[in-house]
């Protein structure tokens, strides 16, 4: 198994914070670190992750975390200047803001602004899903916890989407079923995916429902809208016996899955979560495009492919590698037939932001070298504004930057 050294170190560190159950069993006789202390340090440490999205009027909104609050700012000139920060939650609280688990932004009808985040709790790897809404983008309702289950367990790595009818959907990684299985001394792979739906623009949420058992524990959940507007979820899944590929679910209006299908077929076996989730986009022709990280044929790579239906199953069309052996954390978005992928990659000296751009629905791509930094950096995002696509990247040295992807 050939793994770049930088990624090997990363996976080893992340396995400490997101261990698979079998790894814990094998390590039970080894000296145990103080996980409570490590968890508290990680939860309280300032983190650089941010989200960005354009609203229906073309205003750019950013969400980041400062002083225990989700902070929003907006720009009407594509990131050249920004408004002062607007605090979403009046009372400060712990907020996850790493690349895989960061605050999210979505927009409801009549210009309402919707924000979600994960609040870490006291025990290691625990959290709850938080949500707040605003009708004007300046004054937010008090945040709520969206799930009825209040056990101090994993409810983390949420994704957020909303439609023009005011339906809001949140999906997240949840460990209630794994905890119940362990209490009954029964085996259980990974975690589960749960969702909650609001029919009133986020003012209230219905009781949550389970999408699928056996998700990976610490990889982000990708969300997109299918050709008819139905929500799609893509996540890293633990297939039997321990293959960490990906699964796709199409959800009905009630947030329950119409089907859960295997979406990738790289058959990567690893006894820990790689903390490297997928991304998903649907183009103007209704084609589903995905990027993901997996190990295949002994090497770890980012991959791109089109997820095509074949009867009651999915097949990957046009699978190809993206970037080099150090490429990491790709994102993807579509606008009509225009498609863009962005990722970051360490070249031995600097971290560089790269992109691939397609004007023919992913059949061919043209490369773009966008930026580089000497310091720490967030995962890049690709966002759409009408028919245009942009890469968004936050770095410690350069701050928030937006890059057109013509």
Report on this model:
This protein has about 400 residues and is mainly beta. It has two domains: about 50-235 and about 245-270, 6 Propeller (Neuraminidase), CATH 2.120.10; about 280-405, Glycosyl hydrolase domain, family 43 (Tachylectin-2, Chain A), CATH 2.115.10.20. About 10% of the residues lie in helices and about 45% in strands. The strands form seven sheets. Strands 1-2-3-4 form a four-stranded antiparallel beta sheet, with no helix packed on it. A four-stranded antiparallel beta sheet has the order 5-6-7-8, with no helix packed on it. Strand 14 and strand 15 form a beta hairpin. The longest helix is centred in the first third of the chain and has 13 residues, at about 5-15. It is globular and about 55 Å long. The two termini are about 35 Å apart.
Give the biggest beta sheet.
4 strands, antiparallel
Percentage of residues assigned to helices: under 10%
Query: What's the quaternary structure here?
Result: single chain
Radius of gyration: 20 Å
What is the domain tally?
Answer: 2
Task: Tell me the CATH topology of the largest domain.
Answer: Neuraminidase
Strand order of the largest sheet: 1-2-3-4
Q: β content, as a range? A: over 45%
**Total count of strands:** 27
In the CATH hierarchy, the architecture of the largest domain is 6 Propeller
What is the CATH C level class of the largest domain, in words? Mainly Beta
Quickly count the helices: 4
Class of secondary structure makeup: mainly beta
The average pLDDT is 91
Head-to-tail CA distance between termini: 37 Å
Q: Tell me, briefly, the overall form.
A: globular
Task: List unreliable stretches of 5+ residues.
Answer: 1-17, 19-29
């Amino acid at each position: 198994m050939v793994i770049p050294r930088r990624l090997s170190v990363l996976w080893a560190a992340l396995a400490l914070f997101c261990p698979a159950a079998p790894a814990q069993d094998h390590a039970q006789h080894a000296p145990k670190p103080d996980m409570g202390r490590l968890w508290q340090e990680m939860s309280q440490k300032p983190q650089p992750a941010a989200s960005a999205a354009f609203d229906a009027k073309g205003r750019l909104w950013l969400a980041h975390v400062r002083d225990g609050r989700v902070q929003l700012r907006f720009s009407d000139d594509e990131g050249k200047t920004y408004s002062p920060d607007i605090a979403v939650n009046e009372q400060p609280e712990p907020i996850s803001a790493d690349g895989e688990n960061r605050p999210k932004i979505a927009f409801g009808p009549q210009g309402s602004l919707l924000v979600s985040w994960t609040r870490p709790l006291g025990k290691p790897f625990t959290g709850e899903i938080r949500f707040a809404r605003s009708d004007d983008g300046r004054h937010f309702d008090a945040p709520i916890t969206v799930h009825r289950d209040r056990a101090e367990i994993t409810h983390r790595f949420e994704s957020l989407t909303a439609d023009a009818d005011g339906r809001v959907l949140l999906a997240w990684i949840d460990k209630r079923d794994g905890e119940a299985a362990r209490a009954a001394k029964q085996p259980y792979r990974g975690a589960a995916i749960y969702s909650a739906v609001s029919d009133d623009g986020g003012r209230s949420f219905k009781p949550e429902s389970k999408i699928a058992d056996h998700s990976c524990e610490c990889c982000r959940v990708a969300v997109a809208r299918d050709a008819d507007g139905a929500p799609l979820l893509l996540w890293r899944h633990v297939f039997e016996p321990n293959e960490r590929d990906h699964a796709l679910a199409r959800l009905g209006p009630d947030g329950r899955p119409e089907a859960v299908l295997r979406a990738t077929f790289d058959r990567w076996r690893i006894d820990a979560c790689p903390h490297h989730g997928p991304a998903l986009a649907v183009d103007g022709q209704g084609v589903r495009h995905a990027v993901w990280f997996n190990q295949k044929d002994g090497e770890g790579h980012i991959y791109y492919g089109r997820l095509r239906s074949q009867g009651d199953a999915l097949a990957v069309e046009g699978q190809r590698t993206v970037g080099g052996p150090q490429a990491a954390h790709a994102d993807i978005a579509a606008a009509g037939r225009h498609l863009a992928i962005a990722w970051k990659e360490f070249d031995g000296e600097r971290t560089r932001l790269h992109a691939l751009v397609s004007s023919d629905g992913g059949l061919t791509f043209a490369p773009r070298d966008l930026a580089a930094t000497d310091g720490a950096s967030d995962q890049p995002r690709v966002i759409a504004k009408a028919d245009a696509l942009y890469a968004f990247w936050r770095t410690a040295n350069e701050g928030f930057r937006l890059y057109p992807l013509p």
